[in-house]
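Re: the multi-chain job from yesterday

Posting the exact lines I submitted so nobody has to dig through the queue logs.
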Amino acid sequence: MHSLGQIEEQRSIPTAVDYKVYHDPEIFAAEQRSIFKGRTWCYLGLEAEVPNAGDYRASFVGETPVVLVRGQEDKIFAWVNRCAHKGATVCRSLRGNQADGAFVCVYHQWAYNAEGTLVGVPFRRGMKGVGGYDKDFDPANHSLEKLRVENYKGMVFGTFSSEIEPLEEFLGPVMRKYIDRVFHRPIKVLGYARQYMAGNWKLYSENSRDSYHGALLHLFYPTFGIYRQSQESAGELAEQGFHNIFTVSKPKGDIDYTSFGDEANREMQGATKLQDERLLQFRPEIDDDVGLHIQSLFPNVVLQQIQNTLATRQIVTHGPDKTELVWTYFGYADDDEETTRHRLRNLNLVGPSGLISMEDGEAVELCQQGTVGAEGKYNFIEMGGDDVRDYYAPMGMDENAVRGFWKGYLELMGDGQAPSAVEVPA
Amino acid sequence: MNLADPALQGIVDSLNAAYGLCLDDGRLEEWPEFFVDDCLYQVIARENVDHGLPAAVMYCDSKGMLVDRIVALRQANVFPEHFSRHLISRAVLTGSDADLVTAEASYAVLQTRNDGETRIYNAGKYVDRFLISDGAALLVSRMCVYDTHRIATLLATPI
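And the result, structure tokens for all chains:
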């Protein structure tokens, strides 16, 4: 018979996190307060998505619906999509242009400008002297909830925090250097894909920082005999631990990148060959050899360059076990038609149908399903050590960046991260 | 070609019916044979098409790329086990030029995973160009424009 041991309280640490973090509705609610509405800058979208005055795009901060708008003076604003009167959704489209600059709630026609300030209330003085608001009613006190907005190289972020440092400081010099790399010239949006996973947002956040699973879960490359053992990889973390960048470069030396056949390392040659090698063709367009750049910016976006695909992946949290990933694909503004076609071909690799990425959706759901009822049990994140380092380069066989995520997460959550009672064997 | 010709209508509808059943039966290796060699197959969100944006979740501009998709599905990709079920409407023939016919048809793909529940997985329309020869049709291009722009988990099996 199982003997009852001593009950102890155990807190999550970056190498061992209580599985309840993926399921507990109270933790989810605490995350909305302490992370998404706390001291972070959340990604809202790309400046290129709202190029003209009046352009808007529906977005989210955590689970909170937010609208990103370009105002008349070229400034970008963001506000919570919730009328100050009855809480109704004001902007009902995914995107569009509000040429007159006014956003009107359909319910009682309260009207707001691009900035989110209330500018019109029907029957404010009543009708024929009857009804209406008190004479003290001041529209200025009934605006939409506004976010602070800052833009770095065309990536637009918003925050609810009045105390947080400027965006550039939050990102830090290492992250900025890599954002600069991708946004080295003007971009244009190529389209969207939305992926809905029955799993917790942190499982996806770990996944995008996890360089260990790459060649193990995603079997496309080895299946087609492509495994470049001599390629060089490197990872860097921001000071807080929770942002990271992982890059893979082509090997140094005279390897012709224009031909996939020449590039392939035959050590893991599979039985199968690609019929159409254009799918994998890589045309370096930034002045380095990096063919894969996956940058996770806490708490809600991944910026990527994989071959010639460019995308942001925005993480939207719809509930403890409901996460939406909004892929915004882009190219450079000066791409010609043939370059765009090449990017579209490369896009087969990534996104919800990505030949080297679709498995991530399944991995998130498997971890969600496997951890049901596992409160007080812990994951094991010690590949490559038990510390958090700012640089790592051991062929990606390292969970350093996952530990970095948890380090930053746990610091922000503070007391929101209640310990579990754990049974210790007697 | 006369678009009102019932025989032509039958050729196009027959291809669509066989195409759906081929995928639903899991005969994925036969799927590329519905296309000409120099084909274009796309699965693209309606929100992109409506805004003139070209990004597709699948974009294959050769039959070889279709074959590569299937080989990857069989040998490399990891996804929830599932059955697909295509329900495809009668095609509306929209135009013709020499031996090419353009047509559109609505589709719904139902998906049943291991939990046994059947869900509407992907609904949309096919925007097609067919090559008609010897009383049979082949796809020159098929654009699957999906309304269901929130893809559940991932999209592995072609639509």
